[in-house]
Design goal:
With 154 residues, this protein is α+β, with helices and mostly antiparallel strands. The protein has one domain: Roll (CBS-domain), CATH 3.10.580. It is built from seven helices and seven strands. It has a three-stranded antiparallel beta sheet with strand order 1-2-5. The protein has a two-stranded antiparallel sheet with strand order 3-4. Strands 6-7 form a two-stranded antiparallel sheet. α3 packs across α4. 21% of the residues are buried. The mean pLDDT is 84.
Length: 154
């Protein structure tokens, strides 16, 4: 029988709410030495993920989109909406303002191999695990997969 996500995922979850101050989320990430946190609403439903990548905007700032001027018109060479999202993250004060909304998720019964492929193909570091009711029951990280592989070396 193939190994499933439920066999390997972390069940001891640390979560934050959308209203959590960013400073508090940063402190949790640093103290726990983790790279991301699930964001849940008052009903423990997943609404996003806050990660080191999301928080880097706080330090690095945002680069305006490239554009050219033609006569009296501005022509953007990149989507200006992306700049707006990045600026919002850089200036945000709560988790809701900086988190990644609608993260990719998996079910606990998904084969681990399939989840690992998804993580590799999409360059995802963590996958929230949702049960059939959409409730967060775990998180699968690259570290979980590597530890599983190490434990099964002969």
């Amino acid at each position: 029988m193939p190994t499933t996500v439920a066999d390997v995922m972390s069940r001891d979850l640390v979560t934050v709410s959308p209203d959590t101050p960013l400073g508090e989320a940063i402190k949790i990430l640093a103290e726990r030495r983790i790279s991301g946190l699930p964001v849940v609403d008052q009903n423990d439903k997943l609404v996003g993920v806050i990660s080191e990548t999301d928080l880097m905007w706080q330090e690095t700032g945002v680069t305006p989109p490239a554009y050219i001027m033609l006569l009296d018109s501005v022509i953007y060479l990149e989507n200006p909406a992306k700049y707006d999202r990045e600026l919002h993250k850089a200036l945000g004060q709560t988790v809701k303002e900086a988190m990644t909304k609608d993260p990719i998720t998996v079910k606990p019964d998904k084969p681990l191999r399939d989840a690992a492929h998804l993580m590799h193909d999409r360059q995802i570091h963590r996958l929230p695990v949702l049960d059939q009711n959409g409730t967060l029951v775990g998180i699968l990280t690259r570290g979980d997969i590597i530890r599983f592989m190490a434990a099964n070396q002969d």
